[in-house]
Design goal:
This protein is α/β, with parallel strands linked by helices and about 450 residues long. It has 13 helices and 19 strands.
């Protein structure tokens, strides 16, 4: 642990600017004079209050020595509900309500922000938060596209902020022990990880509509190019449209692929390929409901992810999970348990988490595991207080996210991608390279 003087020196900020596109907000050093110590109360803003944000507002409110100052959403209906939920979770006073996240970032009393917005806001708001001097907990995926992910990493480093991505399995004691066993050679040299996700999602049709009076649709779109409002898009089905979402690959695949990459001990792939389509229904989805992404890594190592969003038949008896294959056996896990088998499929060892509320409900869109949520938030807060990298630091999160983003790019262009293993960049494919970034609404381009 750093000495107090070194800690203060590292955390000190002389000037800071909040910039996105041509919108700039200036802050003085006076705004950041308070240094967070081990026993100081951390003040947090929750941004994005539907679904995941609703669940996590209670998780944050139950943490020790923390206060939720503000809850923020473009949907005005959600604000009083979450204010009540925070009080019900034990906070003495209700947090303030705010529609515009940019105003939240100007509040000098807020130390950290939690982001549960749609995907197209994740990296821009993370960057804005770092530039405003806030620590950031951002749900997966850390970015909508690879270029944004690189910018988010750069912002965390430039402004010396703690940035945690919501890959909760990184804070699971059972999962940490599992990875330690894998790295210790419990099944020998690892050469393959197979991950999967299944669900019974229904058809989705959009239709022209009128923006409801409770929604600021322009602010909801934020960095994304403007499109007319359509009924059936908000608050969840934006996941299946490229302008705002990243499909099931990043919506759920991020979790298992992060575990798989962690266990395999790999960084960036050398080749990625993907097949699939929208097969179950003929509706308005743009992203695949049936998809396989295969990734080759240096050292004769592969990772494969399989998805069936609209057919709930389980794989290996589980709706989601990871299997590691090694020279001396295999290991199965869903994040809160793991089971080891030898090459003859004989059970060698089984470990289950003893943590309360640790069971994983793979199809719960708000909180698959309350126990893991709480541990991951606690790790984020501990990292702030002790000025150290969190369990799923933004750079670790980005390396898992970019692998799946490359899978989506491969699917969209219809061919394998060959990559630079030093950084994951696409080689010799100008059409695919165009999807490394995106087009932004003028004035909203993220910059570091």
């Amino acid at each position: 642990m750093e000495k107090r003087r070194e800690f203060i020196k590292k955390m000190a900020v002389t000037t800071a600017g909040l910039a996105i596109g041509d919108k700039v907000f200036s802050f003085s050093a006076k705004s950041y004079k308070r240094i967070i110590g081990a026993n100081d109360r951390i003040h947090v803003a929750i941004i994005g209050l539907n679904g995941r944000g609703s669940s996590m507002s209670g998780t944050f409110a139950r943490q020790k020595n923390l206060e939720i100052n503000t809850v923020c959403d473009v949907d005005s209906r959600t604000i009083p509900k979450i204010q009540q939920k925070v009080v019900a979770a034990g906070q003495a006073t209700a947090p303030k309500g705010e529609k515009d996240c940019r105003k939240v970032l100007q509040d000098k009393n807020i130390d950290a922000i939690y982001i549960a917005t749609p995907d197209h806001w994740h990296a821009p708001l993370t960057i804005m938060g770092c530039q405003a001097g806030k620590h950031v907990y951002v749900e997966k995926p850390v970015s909508h596209n690879p270029h944004e992910g690189e910018l988010a990493v750069a912002a965390a480093r430039k402004y010396d902020r703690i940035v945690q991505m919501g890959a909760q399995r990184r804070s699971s004691p059972a999962m940490i022990q599992c990875i330690e066993e894998l790295h210790g050679g419990v099944i020998g040299r690892l050469y393959l990880a197979k991950a999967w996700y299944t669900n019974n999602r229904k058809a989705n049709y959009l239709k022209p509509g009128t923006v409801p009076d409770w929604l600021d649709y322009d602010l909801w779109q934020g960095p994304a190019p403007r499109t007319p409002y359509q009924d059936g898009l908000i608050h969840y089905n934006w996941h299946w449209f490229w302008n705002w979402g990243t499909g099931e690959a990043l919506n759920n695949g991020t979790h298992e692929v992060d575990v798989a990459r962690w266990g395999l001990g790999v960084d960036f792939p050398t080749r990625v390929s993907s097949i699939g389509g929208r097969y179950q229904f003929k509706d308005d989805w743009q992203t695949p409901d049936t998809q396989i992404v295969a990734m080759d890594y240096p050292g004769r190592v592969s990772l494969m992810w399989e998805n069936r969003s609209s057919n709930g038949r389980k794989i290996e008896g589980a709706d989601r999970g990871v299997i590691f294959y090694g020279e001396n056996g295999s290991l199965d896990t869903d994040g809160e348990y793991y089971t080891i088998y030898d090459l003859s499929c004989k059970l060698v060892k089984q470990v289950k988490s003893a943590a309360p509320q640790s069971e994983v409900d793979g199809r719960n869109t708000a909180s698959p595991s309350l126990g893991m949520d709480s541990m991951h938030v606690a790790n984020f807060l501990d990292s702030i207080r002790n000025n150290r990298r969190p369990n799923c630091d933004v750079e670790l999160g980005y390396r898992s996210v970019v692998a799946m983003q490359l899978g989506n790019i491969s699917w969209r262009v219809g061919r394998d991608l060959h990559l630079d293993p030093k950084n994951g960049h696409i080689l010799n494919d100008p059409e695919a390279q165009k999807l490394w970034s995106r087009t932004y609404e003028p004035g909203w381009e993220p910059k570091v």
